[in-house]
Amino acid sequence: MNDIKYFLLCLVTLAIVGCNSIQHQLVTQCPSGTLNLPDCPPEDAVDDDTINEIYERRSWVPPSKLEVDPIILGEQAQIPVNSSRIKVIGPSHEDAMRSLATKIWLIDHAQHTIDITYYIFKTDLVGYAILGALCNAVERGVDVRIMVDSIGSLSPGHSALRAVETCTENAGFVRNTNGQITTKKARAQVVVFNAITKFQFNRRSHDKLLVIDGSFPAKAVVMTGGRNISLDYYGIKKDGSPDLDVFRDLEILSLSGEQSSNEKHTVGMVSEIYYSLLFSHTGNRRITPYEASDEFDKGKYQNRYISHRIKAQKSLATIKAFPEIEKQLNSMPDYMNQGFEDAQVRLSHQLSNLTNKAVTTNVVENLERNPNSILYLLSKVLVDLKAAGITSGSLQIVSPYLFSGQYFDEEGTLIYDGAEETLEWLNENPDLKLEVITNSVLTSDNFFTQAIIDMGMAPRFLLTPELQKVWLASTKEGEFNPDIVESEEWKQLINHPQIFFYQTGRLDSDILGGDQHYGKLHAKFIYGEEVGFVGTSNFDYRSNLYNNEMGFFYQGRNVSNDLATVFEQLKATSYRWGTPEWLEMRKKVMESDSSKASPARKQRSIYKTVRALGLEYLL
């Protein structure tokens, strides 16, 4: 019952009602001897059992028709460890543009299916270009599913997304593994996650996932990480000129590995099944284009969508014509055939966050409900390391909004303190080292979370309780007081031999009159010598308690080496928390005329207000 095969069987069951009606409609529309009616396949189309099963499994089913809860399936599944080949797409300006080129190229070269979901899907130049590529895919016979979060991708009517489904007027028919046209016509199914009409404000899909040909191991590609669909992530402005102040992010590409032929469910299949569970969540809403209402509409759907489709194709052509993107696209065949590292991977998710109750007081119980969760598996990795007697080495964490949780029961008693647990672990293992890179007041796009990091998290790890109070009291008493920050006690504490907190941005930033652009850190990954995690979680309260998140745990020394290269590059653009250079950078930000000055000066009052109102769990 808990084998991953159960996923497939249940999803086919979920889809069967809707698919039967589709199949019946197809039969009645295409009587023997007719070839030119709408939706009719060519006369030589193949009725392929494998394609039929995949097609049914991918079909949207209204929540009222669901016989099982997809979230429970996700919790109970025995998700396999898969053989994979991994490539890291890092935070450099070049990699940001390469990421966009990769997405477009993968969509352009998909042969059977595409599943795409992003927390933020802006209808800017990048968003429209992706929609244009998806429309083209449908027209050449690729079955497409699109899902966006209702808050992250807030839109009055999602007309641009609805327009993609109008591409089905010219849709091709899905091909089988031999390249033969089958009887299944490609679709574009668009879903809004936890739609506002079924409003659950705090339960969001923070996923960023692209799955190409998931059920076809030799062709499958999975792409995930921190980047959303927006110009803000890809290093270019709408005129094609470089944008050096974008989010600095990281993603991975995952292909089937050398041992995939021995697997019942490969990494692509597992990713597609996971997508189906998220796609089927009971809070979701299927949106469709409005059909033609009068004689002025030129086709099956209203004319309003024509302009969106034209804009999508123009945007796609514009982006492809940008010299750097064109260069990346031309090199993509070589890029997709070299530089991948062998690894074992395991998909992990936070689906339970969508339905958990009493999330801030029942943390332990909720964690144990979902043995497939990111947090559960992270804790298991640490337990396994301890059991194996590993007492030396280092753990590196990169996150834009990293918190170390404190949780209390209903009576207000502290039941878990992440900082205390970590400090105890390090004290027991003096040869272990923890290194963290996060944002600073110079690079953060969220001054609320930055206040928690600078006024709460870092001091809990590094300062004594007495110094924490002084640091938090005021800039005059703490941060700008040489008797404090130049004292031997301060120097000894912030230069902890096992704990290293780095924050991105330096004094030569363009914001401070220099010539360097540090952007905004948005990457999220963890790694050790051979194991790690790359995904969508920020490891803050919202990711840990409310959002669905996903990603891959991996085992592979070479993948860790690639992440280590990125880590060192980021560290070279950072200062260590509490050092004179870091304090000077903060002072310069506070004195600047930038938009970051006021939030930096007010960090202490922001932090105290957030804590007093209990809002830290919602950030």
UniProtKB/TrEMBL annotation:
PLD phosphodiesterase domain span: 201-233
BP terms from Gene Ontology: cardiolipin biosynthetic process
Gene Ontology molecular-function annotations: phosphatidyltransferase activity
Signal peptide: none
InterPro entries hit by this protein: PLD-like_dom, PLipase_D/transphosphatidylase
PANTHER family: CARDIOLIPIN SYNTHASE (PTHR21248), CARDIOLIPIN SYNTHASE C (PTHR21248:SF12)
The protein's name: Phospholipase D-like domain-containing protein
